[in-house]
Amino acid sequence: MLSSKSFYVIRTLALLFVSSVFADDVVVLTESNFDKEVGQDRGALVEFYALPDLFNESIVEPLKLCGHCKKLAPEYEKLGASFKKAKSVLIGKVDCDEHKSLCSKYGVSGYPTIQWFPKGFLEPKKYEGAHGAEALAEFVNKEGRTNVKIAAVPSNVVVLTPHDFDEIVLNNEKDVLVEFYAPWCSHCKSLAPIYEKVASAFKLEDVVIANVDADKHRDLAEKYGVSGYPTLKFFPKSNKAREDYDGGRDLDDFVTFINEKCGTSRDGKGQLTSKAGIVVALNDLVKEFVNAGNDEKKKILAKLEEEVEKLKGATARYSKIYVKAAKNSLEKGADYAKKEIQRLERMLEKQSISPSKADEFTLKKNILSTFASY
Fold this sequence. Notes:
By secondary structure, this protein is α/β, with parallel strands linked by helices. It has helices at 4-21, 34-37, 67-82, 100-105, 133-144, 165-169, 186-201, 218-223, 251-262, 283-291, 294-310, 313-332, 336-348, 355-372, and strands at residues 27-29, 43-49, 89-95, 113-117, 125-126, 158-160, 175-181, 207-213, 231-235, 243-244.
């Protein structure tokens, strides 16, 4: 039997897997919001899921028994993304381990269970078809009277071949993480949706997330000492002497590794963290500036500009925001930083904002926060 601690660890790993492959386009339904979202002015396809075998103490190797959940998750993600703009249909999911009474209410006894709730009704029709995205879409289109096709999800993973491997991987201006995989490898298949999210998270950085079919291009795999799948190797832009990636295989593990190696500051969703743009070398001058009188502020601003001229690369770009923030603070008053942070936060809450604009506003907000903190 497994100890209760072991089951807790297994459960956590399983939930991390499920959360990592479901897109934001799949609505998370709970006991508190189910009746508000389902049975109202649109039809709803709801997946009731759980990993019940993980908690059966007679199971010796429980992680091997959640294959149906793993297989459905990326297909259901495609479905959610494809129906995102279909206002008459909701694609949702319920965690039956967290919301047992809700799942019991709708007669759920096996996982995953998929049910269709017509517009205006809370009496579901069970879905009995295949679990591929195409089959699910055909069912939803029929029941919801829509005509949505499964969208081809663009990949941010760069596919490498012997013809372009050196050009891309050995580029001194790019950090590159390469996965050597085989199409038949089950571990590679499990990694694929997570690896795609890694690529998406760093698509705005000078970081390349790539893969190569090592079964097809065996000479290339042999050249880099690949003997098992998947094998991941990191090629830093400053030194193309590769290093093996031996870290964890969940999204957070990859994000932490890349941030540490590449000097980036992204989270798993690709958003900049609160550390992005911060130039630690300027902190002392910022503190002096904030606590000085107006006449002294002008002298410190001149020092700040001198220091900025010495910086290079991304740090130099960020430091210019420091200078602008100092000038505006001097011109508009001591409360400028706090007011501007509030304005930027309102802008960042708008769903229509582009990723590049979100980066721009986040960098400004982070740097202004150093002025507001003293």
